[in-house]
Write a structure and sequence with these properties.
Order of helices and strands: EHHHEHEHEHEHHEHEHEH
Number of helices: 11
Number of strands: 8
CATH architecture of the largest domain: 3-Layer(aba) Sandwich
Length: about 325
């Protein structure tokens, strides 16, 4: 009997056109785990404000990201699907699905249906757990398979922020950049509203000083704590001292407080401290996308240089790195 492997990433519009971007934004932002406010309020906010006004602006940026193969997040996903299938062999069936838009989770799961599988391993391509990403994938998968007559054993890989091969892959991708000297190193992660962190806190210590200094049983699935844990492992391999790096969070939406420190604030601080050369890592993303290539690679670069910085450089995502594919194989076989 074979094992099914469901690779899942966030998703991307079908094209950089305004209608397709609006369609993507509506599906993404109407997820109650992404914008966790009452349904009617979310419906009005997304359909009357965010999609109409943000859609054209986002479409313009997606056009900058698009190339002859389309959206990097999607085509790197297909590439990794094929590479992982080759690595795992005939005893496995690998299928790629996106939480939002195409290839849909429904289409990916349909590839695994009625195959007589002994189990399905669900592997979200989010190294750090968040309710808005991995949690949403888990909920959607169970919603899809609940109508099956025969449901095989399903194993969810919730996170892998400190997996040795994941860390090794990021260090490997960074090697060409590390041939040069930098004044500072920034580890920037996608942000989340503070309320999404605190409402799942069982300790009462979340977002207090020192709460993310270690990863333990009580904060094992805390997104912020996992981001700091990933950074600790990376800086250990990179031989960086505490004075040489900063952890921060990007991509804020709306006016509610998001987890801190904010990346743009850190950039201003580094410029004020006369740091001239900065290397940025984005370890919450395993495939290049809008948030890496455009936000970190271009917009933050422009901000840094406007403030007097001389050189801002970004380490690309794992994409099709061979060590990353090996990491995925290990996650599946060790599951």
């Amino acid at each position: 009997m074979k094992t099914g492997v469901l690779l899942v990433n966030l998703g991307t519009p079908d094209s950089p056109s305004v209608p397709d971007v609006r369609k993507y934004l509506r599906e993404f932002l109407m997820d109650n785990r992404v914008i966790d406010i009452p349904y009617i309020t979310r419906l009005l906010l997304v359909n009357l404000i965010i999609a109409p006004f943000r859609g054209p602006k986002s479409a313009k940026v997606y056009k900058e990201l698009w190339n002859e193969r389309g959206s990097p997040l999607k085509y790197y996903g297909y590439d990794v699907e094929a590479l992982l299938q080759k690595e795992l062999g005939d005893e496995y069936i690998v299928a790629l699905g996106m939480r939002y838009q195409n290839p849909s989770l429904h289409s990916a799961i349909d590839k695994l249906k009625d195959k007589g599988l002994k189990e399905i391993v669900v592997l979200p391509m989010f190294p750090q757990y968040a309710s808005a990403s991995t949690g949403s994938v888990m909920e959607k998968v169970m919603d899809i398979v609940k109508s099956w007559e025969l449901i095989p054993n399903i194993r969810f890989i919730d996170s892998y922020p400190t997996h040795p091969t994941f860390i090794k892959a990021f260090v490997d991708v960074a090697k060409p950049h590390l041939q040069h000297a930098f004044d500072h190193y920034v580890f920037t992660y996608h942000g989340l509203p503070e309320r999404q962190i605190t409402k799942s806190d069982i300790t009462g210590k979340c977002l207090t000083d020192g709460c993310c200094d270690t990863l333990h049983k009580d904060n094992r699935l805390c997104y912020r704590a996992q981001c700091f844990a990933t950074t600790r492992e990376l800086v250990k391999e990179l031989n960086l001292t505490p004075e040489q790096f900063t952890v921060c969070f990007q991509s804020r939406l709306l006016k509610d407080p998001w987890i801190k420190p904010y990346t743009d604030d850190i950039i201003k601080k580094l410029a004020a401290e006369n740091k001239k050369k900065v290397l940025a890592f984005v370890p919450s993303f395993v495939a290049d996308c809008l948030e890496t290539t455009i936000e970190v690679g271009e917009e933050y670069k422009e901000l840094f240089e406007e403030l007097g910085g001389e050189h801002w450089e970004m380490v690309e995502s794992l994409n099709t790195n061979h060590i990353w594919v090996e990491c995925l194989k290990e996650l599946v076989t060790q599951a």
